[in-house]
Each structure stands twice: as C-alpha cells, then as structure tokens.
Amino acid sequence: MALINFRDFSFRYKQSHTYALRNINLEMGRDPRFILLAGETGSGKTTLIRCMNGLIPQFYSGYYKGKVEVNGKDTTEMSIADLSTIVGIVFQTPENQLIAMNVEHEIAFGMENLGIKRELIKEKLEEVIQLTEIENILDRAPFEISGGEQQRVAIASILALDPEILILDEPTANLDPFFAGKILELLRKIQLEKKITIIIIEHRLDLVLPFVDEIILMKEGEILQKDKKQKVVNGIIFENLNINKPLIYSIFRQLKEKNLFNEPIPISVEEAIKLIKQ
Fold first, then answer.
1. Which of 25, 85, 123, 263 is buried deepest, with most CB atoms within 10 A?
2. CA distance readout (Å), 207 to 105, 135, 143, 177, 179
3. String of b and e for 104-122 (b: at least 16 CB within 10 Å)?
4. CA nearest 161: which of 201, 129, 102, 121?
C-alpha cells in the first residue's frame, strides 16, 4: 500500500476561476527518500503539499474531484490532527507556527495535545533536541531566536510526533547561503537517521540538488515528471522549465550543445571538479 496516493485529483480554490491542480496522479511508497518538489512560480507546489495533510479541503475550501489517500484512507475522512502524525509540514515562515512561551514547551505542545505519556514526551524531547542541535536555546522564546533556529525548532516539533513524511515549504527562503546549507545538511541527516521521506519545495536548486534523491517537476498545476535526480536533470523537461537552474548546470549544458561534453551533467561543483579531473 502506498503511503500517499493522488488519484485523478484536481482542485480549485473557492475564490479562483482556474484549477490550481489538474489531473494529479501521484504515488509515494514507504521507502525513505529525499524528494525535491520544483516548478515555475504558481505551478501548484504549495497546493499539492496542502492536500497531503488534509489542509485541502478541510481548511482551504474549494472545488475538487478525485481522491487523496494517506495510509489507504481518504484525507477527507481523517482529522488534520491524525494526519499530522503521518505527514508533518514546516511552512515557509516557521515563526507563524511557533506559539509557546519557550522552545522546550513548543516541542512538547503537539505531544501533550495528543495525550502522550509524560515519560515518552521527555524521551522524545531529548531525542529531537539532540537531532536538531538546539540544546542551547531551550529556555528562549521562539521570537527571540534567529530564522535558522526557528526552522530547527519547527522541524523538532514536527519530528517529535514521529511522522513518516516531513514536508518543508522553502525552508531556506529567508536564510543566507551559509545557514541555508546548514539547514539542508540537517535535513539530510534527519532523513537518513530517522529513515523517513522528506519532501522539500525549494527554488535555490544550486543548494538543494546535491542532497536529494528524486525530483518532482510541476507546471501549471500538473506533474510533468517524477524520477531520480540524475534522470530529471539530464532530461528535456528540466531544460525547458523556467526555474532557477544551478550555474554548473548551465555551463555543462552549453558544453553539451557544442559537443565538448557527452557525460551526464554533474549536480554540484564538487561533482564537476571530480569529473574534470578524470
């Protein structure tokens, strides 16, 4: 059984005249992986992830047809609270989902609401605090800490609920390249250690591509391709999409057009250096 399954799904927001998602058929298995969700602005990426944890149609109303299933159950028949223990989302501005008086209480909040026993809460707190490396800010209020620290706290609060999928909507949007890289390194570490699937929406492809296993490409509410990153990056669909491609991609694409390079395009500068040395 697939963990997430979209079947002939289309959705239009109530105030809109056009469909944000059209004829989506997408299946995500239980094998842990790191997935990039990429596409042009307005392609439906955020709408797609809102469907995965029931925010659509339970919170964002509109008109839809087809079905979205999580763990084999229709998302319209499960509460958002129940879905959050399977699919956790960290939104683009994490401070908007941080509500407690200090970081430690923030992480414990979701577990307390689910009635988890105190001993288990303490155990999970220690685990996710160490995993996200936020031991030094537990007594501070969420609004007092930096953007990168807020991202880590939001991630920790979701991980405490043991989701099978963690979704992040542009987690590096408000961070400089150094701290953006740190967040992506943390996410890869979490994905490998927790053996979960991470789905990330990200426009800074130069930063994120070295970390991901698969890529989903979207345009105008439709899924164009879902495959391993090397196949996607070297394909015609990726080439033709109006997205922020890494500089290293553009360089090797030009070399290919001039018949000066015939190997698969490298994903990162490090891969390119290794390839050139060979």
1. 85
2. 32, 26, 27, 8, 11
3. bebbbebbeeeebeeeebe
4. 121
**What phi and psi, each to the nearest 5 degrees, are found at residue 199?**
-115, 125
Instruction: Indicate the SS3 state at residue 215.
Output: strand
Residues of the chain with pLDDT under 70: none
176: its two tokens: 């400089």
Given the structure tokens 């220690």, which residue do they identify? 126
pTM confidence score: 0.92
The CA-CA-CA angle for residues 121, 199, 75, to 5°, reads 75
Q: Which two tokens stand for residue 124?
A: 């999970």
> What does the buried/exposed string (b/e) look like for 27-37 if buried means 16 or more CB atoms within 10 Å of the residue's CB?
ebeeeeebbbb
d(CA 258, CA 252): 10
Cα gap 168→166, rounded to integer Å: 7
C-alpha distances (whole Å) from 76 to each of 57, 72, 158, 171, 270 are 7, 12, 22, 27, 45
Beta-strand ranges (E) seen in the chain are: 4-13, 21-28, 34-39, 62-70, 73-74, 87-90, 165-169, 197-201, 214-219, 222-228
Helix (H, G, I), strand (E, B) or coil at 164: coil
Helix axes 118-132, 103-113, angle to 10 degrees: 130
pLDDT in tens, 64-81: 999 999 988 999 999 888
